[in-house]
Amino acid sequence: MSAYSLSALEILRSPALTLKWYVVPMLLIVMYIYNKEISAKNWNVVLGGAALWGMDLFNEIWNSIVFHATGFAPVWGTPMGVGDTALLILIGYNIEISFMFAMMGVVVCLTLPKDPKMKILGINNRVVMAAIYTTFAVVIECFLNYAGLLTWEYPWWSRSFPYLVWLIGYLPFFTMAFVVHDMKRMKNKLITLGIIFGVDILALVVFGLMGWM
Fold first, then answer.
1. What's the predicted TM-score (pTM) here?
2. SS3 for 102?
C-alpha cells in the first residue's frame, strides 16, 4: 500500500481529526446557489447541476473500489498532508471536492446557449462546450497534481498521460449535465436523476457493507 494511501486511511471519515469551520460557509454557498435557481424556477439548471454532481459521485465510488481491489492506491487521492481536507468522505473524495462539483454543474449549465441546436464552428454547441469545460477541468487537475494537492500514482492516469482523465474523469460529467438540462419533459429529467443517484446509493450501501468504501 502506498504511503499516500496509508495517510488517507488515517483520516478517512474522521471529522474529529479534520473538520474545519470553513465547511459551514461553503455549505451555505452551495445552498444559496441552488436556492437562487430554484426560486427562479430554473429547473433545467438545477437538475443539470445535480446530474453532474451525481456523475462525479459515481466516479468517486469506483475509485474507492480500485483502491480496495489493488490494495495499493486509488486512481486519485487526497490524503492527509496533501491539500489538507476538512473531511475525507471516500479515499479520493473530500468535502471540498463534493461542494465544488455541486456548484460546477450549476455554473456550466448557466453558460449554455439557449438554443441546444446552435452550432459553433459547424459543431453543435453542447459538444463544443463539453469539450472546452472538460479540457479546462483537466488542466486544473494537472495543476493541482503538480502543486501536490492531488495524488496520482498510476502511469495511465498522470500529467504525462492525461487522456483518460479527459475521457473518463470529466467528459461524462458535462455530457450528462447537458443531456439532463436539455430534456424537454420533467419526468425524463427526474427518471434520469433517479437512475444516477439510485446507482450511487446502491453502490455505497452494497460496497460500504462489504467494507470496500
1. 0.92
2. helix
